[in-house]
Design a protein that fits this description.
3 helices, 103 residues, mainly alpha
């Protein structure tokens, strides 16, 4: 019997990729704001999709696809993070102005 570990390794990589994006979203919103991060994530995600389409390795292609859609999901999450900051669940960056403080 021959075992194929690629699926398990890909699952682990997907788990780590998703877990890595949580602090990236939090730190990105804190330092740069949702609008700037909301522009960076789709660019990086699109580049990862292009890399996935051009990759000759099925494993690398799948890994880039997971990374790309983690970037796309982070677009939504960074705006949700901004709402969490507004509610006081996460700290505001004292060096930035927030639109919701002006109201």
């Amino acid at each position: 019997m021959e075992f194929h570990y690629e699926g398990i390794i890909l699952g682990l990589c997907a788990f780590l990729c998703i877990g890595l994006f949580h602090p990236i979203v939090i730190k990105g919103e804190y330092y740069f704001g949702a609008k700037k991060c909301g522009l960076v994530f789709p660019v990086i995600g699109t580049l990862a999709i292009a890399g996935s389409l051009m990759s000759e390795s099925h494993f690398i292609s799948a890994l880039l696809g997971v990374f790309a859609f983690s970037c796309f999901w982070s677009i939504i999450e960074v705006f949700e993070q901004e709402k969490r900051v507004q509610k006081g669940w996460f700290p505001k960056n004292p060096k930035r102005k927030y639109y919701f403080d002006e109201k």
